[in-house]
Batch of 2 targets.
Target 1
Amino acid sequence: MSRKSRRATMAEVAARAGVSPMTVSYTYNEPSRVADETRARVLLAAIELGYAGPDPAARSLRRGSTRTLGVVLGERLTYAFDDPQAVQFLAGIAEVSAEHGFGMTILPTSGSDADVQRVRDAAVDAFVLWTTSDDDPVLDAVAATRRPAAIQGGPARPGFTMIGADDRAAARAIGAHAFNAARRPAVVSFPLGRDRTAAVVHGPDPASASFPVTRHRLEGFRDAATDAGIAWQSVPVAVCATNDADLAQAAAAGLIRDGHDAIAAMSDQQALGVLRAAERAGIAVPDRLAVTGWDDSETARQRDLTSAAQSLREQGRACAAKVLTGSHPGGGSSAWSITVRGSTRR
């Protein structure tokens, strides 16, 4: 094998520079311990041999740490850049990672067998997981690594820290605003399970949802309907495959055609789609259609949307702090509130 086709070694650099391998190591890792003249000789030898420095993988093995945090997204990779709340969550993780000198590796999953192997092979010191389903095999894969793990929104499981808001209580509160004075309310929902089947289901049993966030929000909307004297079995739930404004718009168009006068959406992105559908149908909000969202994002503020407020950025920070330091302020439950604006009836 020619020298150009393989990596030069530290021993070869030491021999060329006339120093010990330990001196070469100090030159790269603790330069203050090496005299200027000696350090210059080592670096010149490295340039002549094409030596780029210690192998990062080998160095990680020696110190037992990669200084990298793995984020299991549970979605396609583009979701990390397209979804406003995913962006906020990842920004929170990135802030804490940077504070502690850690890098961040995003591990997207697609529901295939390759997901488990990708997690097993990840050269990371700890994991943060975006909310996923109860039956996601990636959960077992993360647990098997025995590395610290935190999950946003659930599912809760032994050995993992779960960070999130009380989705059921928040859904009950926002549902009260959505369903106020409504005769025929409806819900636009996140997917129920990993198959992400789109459908319209009347009064679904929340327990049928394997995604905890979906399940708990359905429980809260059911509570709100019951409080308002509305039979949950009569409430249509339009399930969307992903958190996407266009999909929500298509689902809401059907609900509006059927005469529904209130729609509670599980995100501001979905609520944006509902508002677009109402505009296209010439339906006045909130007089003929009350609309609520979730996350109190910039979209909610721009569109005068009543929304359940939570900070995904702070939840990302809390997840990262827990797995990197072993503690975080505030415990596992995150704050939420309701911001009432002009999209609901007073």
Target 2
Amino acid sequence: MKARHRIRKMTLGRALDKYCTSVSVHKRGHLQEFYRINVLKRAPIADKYMDEISSVDIAGYRDGRLATVSERTGRPVSANTVRLEMALLSALYNIARIEWGTCTHNPVEHVRKPLASSGRTRRLTSTEERRIGRALRLRNAELAAIFTLAIETAMRQGEILSLRWEHVDLHLGIAHLPLTKNGTARDVPLSHKARQALRDFAGPVSGPVFSYTSNGFKSAWRTVITSLGIQDLHFHDLRHEAVSRLFELGTLNVMEVAAISGHKSLNMLRRYTHLRATQLVSKLDVRRRQAQKFAALFVPYPAEICEDDNGSVAVRFADLEHLTVFAITREEALRNASTELLRIQARAACAGRRLPPPGPVSANDSRRLLIKPF
């Protein structure tokens, strides 16, 4: 008969501390997990032993958090925030069960998670962009450059703040990110505006591009946004804005945008992309615009028609190097002239040449008429 393993008694609060120092510290998002761990440690269940916490306790924590109003935002805690906290708890229990021996099962596993939100759809308006840009420039060049880079490159705040001069090539227009949130390196193309923003305060050959820490920048950003009276705009919304603008260019496909933004999941990329309806209207009419542009190449030209003593009819285009078309009858001459005009205009279009513009037609001259190409 197998001996039962003795459960090592450990409160959830102590387990969270151990998880923070032995697991979270090795993650790219360790700062975010640190904040979540502090929230969880303040909950009543943090004082209970891990093996005594049930799924009912976890469900109670979930419901309590969803009913809580955030002190920072003054709004109820979002479903996504609670989902992330429950995900951390679940990861903690899985490690504790296998490696620490402080529990025998994961009580988070079968508890319903709050429904995920559809994601933010906040777009930056042109007026807001001008006001924020002006306010940041008045404070200092670094803040203005960070703002410009966010809109022009779709880089995350952490990626921008971690830029180093030795990884920025303004000549090639590339910013190299050795390590990103996804754990991989990425080369980000810099637009003309992004390169100019960096040139305005170009620093040494090596070293950090920006002096702001994450907390320092967040504080400066909140101060500016509050002073301008702009509502519900997060700095991360600028990444949404940048990705949407890349799609609105109409020159990049999904994979090219993903290469710039660093999204590995195309589903996640779709969540970050909110195209303006006004941009889509113009795309709906693209065929009509192309047809109009095509039609502009094939326009009627004035011609002079006359008959000689032998009975043949001649149609002469004075604007097209004195092109003349002959036929036996007037109808045949007009038909041949129309066909020849179409052929000349088509050849010019293929060669990218511009024909001389059509000359005027006198209303009182019966020998002058407009020939349509067909």
